Automatic annotation (TrEMBL):
<dbReference type="Pfam" id="PF02391">
    <property type="entry name" value="MoaE"/>
</dbReference>
<dbReference type="GO" id="GO:0030366">
    <property type="term" value="F:molybdopterin synthase activity"/>
</dbReference>
<dbReference type="GO" id="GO:0006777">
    <property type="term" value="P:Mo-molybdopterin cofactor biosynthetic process"/>
</dbReference>
<keyword id="KW-0501">Molybdenum cofactor biosynthesis</keyword>
<keyword id="KW-0808">Transferase</keyword>
<comment type="similarity">
    <text>Belongs to the MoaE family.</text>
</comment>
<comment type="function">
    <text>Converts molybdopterin precursor Z into molybdopterin. This requires the incorporation of two sulfur atoms into precursor Z to generate a dithiolene group. The sulfur is provided by MoaD.</text>
</comment>
<protein>
    <recommendedName>
        <fullName>Molybdopterin synthase catalytic subunit 1</fullName>
        <ecNumber>2.8.1.12</ecNumber>
    </recommendedName>
</protein>
<comment type="subunit">
    <text>Heterotetramer of 2 MoaD subunits and 2 MoaE subunits. Also stable as homodimer. The enzyme changes between these two forms during catalysis.</text>
</comment>
<dbReference type="InterPro" id="IPR036563">
    <property type="entry name" value="MoaE_sf"/>
</dbReference>
<comment type="pathway">
    <text>Cofactor biosynthesis; molybdopterin biosynthesis.</text>
</comment>
<dbReference type="InterPro" id="IPR003448">
    <property type="entry name" value="Mopterin_biosynth_MoaE"/>
</dbReference>
Length: 144
């Protein structure tokens, strides 16, 4: 169970580059010996196709959905702090697309909360990816 000072420390959808250090700092807590961090990076391929870049579009409710998911993970885990930030706009291969973190007294609960956080955010947050492929075509990923 979370402590009385448990918190959703940071939630944002941003047009600017993301900072791993900012997310890590947001979840640090003196009672937490375990911090788990997930960083999603734009890769150069998807399902056997070469990817040259992509753009993320976000529904106006995306940040609120992320905040709800963070609160749910916090309430249902042993995490003390959770944070999530996601990019919007055009990104190049190698750019950070999403950074999430969870901290807890021990590593196991931190890993579990972080995994649940990224998996649930990916499933529920209305953010869509438009990939540019090397052959000049493009495709939408994650559309309802």
């Amino acid at each position: 169970m979370p402590t009385d000072d448990a918190a959703v420390a940071l939630v944002a959808v941003r047009d600017a580059p993301l900072s791993v250090d900012e997310v890590l700092a947001a979840v640090r807590h003196p009672g937490c010996g375990g911090v788990a961090l997930f960083v999603g990076v734009v890769r150069d391929h998807d399902h056997g196709e070469s990817v040259t870049g992509l753009g993320y579009s976000a529904h106006p409710s995306a940040e609120a959905t992320m905040a709800d998911v963070c609160a749910e993970v916090l309430a249902s885990s042993e995490a003390v702090r959770v944070a999530a930030v996601h990019r919007r706009g055009d990104l190049a291969v190698g750019d950070l697309a999403v950074v999430v973190a969870a901290s807890a007294a021990h590593r196991g609960p931190a890993f579990a909360a972080c995994r649940t956080l990224i998996d649930t955010l990916k499933e529920r947050t209305p953010i869509w990816k438009h990939q540019a492929l090397a052959d000049g075509s493009s495709e939408w990923v994650g559309m309802p």
